Amino acid sequence: MDLSRCRSDFPILSRTAHGHPLVYLDSAATSQKPLSVLAAEDEFYRVRNANVHRGAYELSEEATAAYEAARARVARFLHADDPEEVVFVRGTTEAINLVAHGLGRGYLHKGDRIVTTVMEHHSNIVPWHLLRGEVGCEVEFVDIDDDGRLRMDDLEAKLAKPTKVVAVTHVSNVLGTVNPVRAIADRAHSAGALVVVDAAQSVPHRRVDVRELGADFLAFSGHKALGPTGIGVLWGRKELLQKLPPYMGGGEMIREVHTDRVTYRDPPARFEAGTPNVAGAVALGAALDYLEGVGWENLAAHEQALATRAVRAAHDRFGSQVRFYGPPLGRDREAVLSFSLQGVHPHDVASILDAEGVAIRSGHHCAQPLMERLGVPALSRASPYLYNTPEEMDIFVGALGKVLDVFAPRA
Q1: pTM to 2 decimals?
Q2: Structural domain boundaries enclosing 369
């Protein structure tokens, strides 16, 4: 990777925060956007803006072509068999809600079991809880071990009883754990269950092949993968999407509407009611181009080097005063650094780092069941990405020293 050239593609990185150069370490929450993505969105609005699928004029036809080209681009990115398996949504949250809503209207019934895990983001928990209240389903959670890996023996025990859905994250947004989705999917399918995968934290960092994963549905958000906010993707096996009822009703998703009946279009149009985020879809295509241009091996090596540098320096300087959560860094662990400083609340950590120009996340990270499992109220999280530098990791660790000087001054 040419890091200097990469950083020049992200104009926001040249700004300051509280008088310091910005050190942005919250990419697990949302990534920054390269010039090519900004340009793609701007270009659409400047020269191609029109509603899609509806207009019988050149501009609308161009907008439609751009929108459907973005769908095809996402399908290639995910190694999907057919672009019609790609549904554009606002993000991972909407995608999982769409699936849960559809499964709850005919496939799932009172007493049916949904198995998920304690490491899930709330977007892969709350929709299933809603079904528990509305349909009467049961929701059970697979535990983790002390290193933050999914307990496959607990999964086996859960799947020993009849199960209809297994919902699992590909990569934990707190621990960085990379779950063995293919093994989970194979076991779930042998038990007769459908598999829903939250790929919000994997798509920005590693090659995702839906065929290799063996998933039935997979969701991700554009804004975490260099794309704009408000655009995301639900991928689903074509035969399964065809069985799901609509999520929302309105224009675009219908064949015919009469006073006594309505008929619906085939997927993906059935799930894209109303005017879609065309510019966002086009810009997402540009973001995926950028990611693949960097190269997955280059990206992984860079992120692992950054994370390793920070963890080693923090342990060397602060010893037992700092604790990082999750498996050891490596191929089965993404570079998400959730940590605690002894005697310091995570919000105080984030506030002092902010004063030094370092942006990190603090709180429960939309993963309260995991916080309860770990026995903590909250954690701090630094999440480096392709545009961060080794020097920024040194600044981050140095800022942690200032936190400890305030709350745990050393003699």
Answers
A1: 0.97
A2: 3-30+295-407
